[in-house]
Amino acid sequence: MSFFWHRLRFFATDAWDELRHSPGVNLLAVGTLVAVLFGTGLVALILSNVGVFVGSLREDVRVEVYLAQDVSEERREVLHGTLSAIEGVTQVDHIDQAAALERYSVWAGEMAGLVDELEVNPLPESFEVFLAPGPGAEGVGARIQDEYGGAEGVEQVRFDRELLGRIEALLDLARFGGGGLGLLVLAAVIFVMASVLRLAVYARRDEIDIMLLVGATPAFVRGPFLVAGVVQGLFSSVAALALIEVARRTTREYASAESLGLLDLFLQNPLPDRYVLGLFLIGLAVSCTAAWFAVRQRV
Amino acid sequence: MIRLFNVSKKYNDATAVSGASLEVAKGEFVFLTGPSGAGKTTLLRMMLRQELPSSGQLIVNGRNVAALPASKVPDLRRSIGVVFQDFKLIQRKTALDNVAYVLNVAGVPRSEQRKKAYEALRGVGLNHKLSAYPNTLSGGEQQRVAIARAVVNEPTLLLADEPTGNLDPDLAVEIMRLFREINARGTTVLVATHDRDLIERMQRRTIILEHGSVIAGGDTA
Fold first, then answer.
1. Closest residue to A214, CB basis, from B102, B107, B109
2. How many Å apart are CA A222 and CA A232, to the nearest integer?
3. For residues A104 and A109, what is the distance between their CA atoms, to the nearest angstrom?
4. Cα gap B85→B162, rounded to integer Å
5. Nearest CA to B198 among B167, B158, B152, B157?
6. Structure pTM?
7. Residues 6 or more apart whose Cβ sits within 8 Å of residue A28
8. Do A214 and B110 touch (CB under 8 A)?
9. Could you report the predicted ipTM of this complex, rounded to two decimals?
């Protein structure tokens, strides 16, 4: 064990020496990796926040049952009773015409005044039927849509799962497509970094030859370069993650109140732990692989 | 210690060494001489397994060098001390670190490395230059650091390729004195040089190469 630590200590010292003696090349390698990890991290941040938003919409599963203008009080009571009795329905709220108008005014903002010019309130009364979230919710919603779609006193039933489905499909596409694109980008970065690090190895070619001549094994010669790769990977990952969080906080801090709502769709939460770990490991892996390819060509 | 049987080395159409046979016994001090291009350096490079012979057999320290697997080459090199005309010191390491590197490679504990490296540098009269970097040392001092590095691991064989080629005559004599001391401690020394004066002054067995062939002195006395 002490032999292992002795070797590791030497590799670390020699790697530090190497980083100190070739700052330009090593900074270029680190800068490249930080830029790529920062870009990848930003995309991951946006995807994770949009994912959280869609997830919250998923939790809020409801069916809107719009009533006909001439529905009787008695029929309304019957509909409320039968809807409440359905298994999987957690709550049924009655939204009368005045409440519907109030909601519209909040939603429409400056455009709300248009409705005031009408003599009668055109918005229908409705029931908001809340469903227990979970895999069964889709079936319950579809059943209500089928059974009450043409029922007496009901004008229309809306159970808009398609939009959510589409958003989720887009997110999946972004995740998988982004993942595939990410792999290509990472391969390109490994190539670029390996080329940059190859300059550092080339600059030390005489030294490497001397090391081999005095009996160093190829693994012993490669060691410091790989340790330098680990250090670059660690530094780049930490720097990129810190930059992402600083950028997120700064953008939110300086955003106007009006735009913050939209920005929060993308930036409200920091990167989840699993993304942080993933990005950290990717940085480490890319840097080590690049260092391996760079030194492998010479030793 | 060293045995060559009909060793040849060809590079495409050019022949660097042609059917060379020679023998160096344990504890000997031998010069390898000949004009430039005679094949001295190629022979030494083959002994270090920097080059493979095109044909023939080459035994160094009991190892058949050409047949040695790549994984065993570092072991062979650790058993040989080597000194070059251009010193081949690692520029970013101090004199002490250059010497200690060989011990590090061999897995010697760090505290022992420093002690042994210091002793080796003291042996060549450079104990006052431990922290000096090669580019701050004179040619003679750099060569002495290289000699300290070559002997710090107590190798059984020391190979030197034109070790005085970049030094003035007084320094060359000084370097030869060091080699004689190393040889007196039991290390076999093979020095490749074309410096006739030096060879005559040292009065040791001399192997003469010409056009890649051994023309005299190849056998032990």
1. B102
2. 15
3. 8
4. 5
5. B167
6. 0.72
7. A196
8. no
9. 0.89
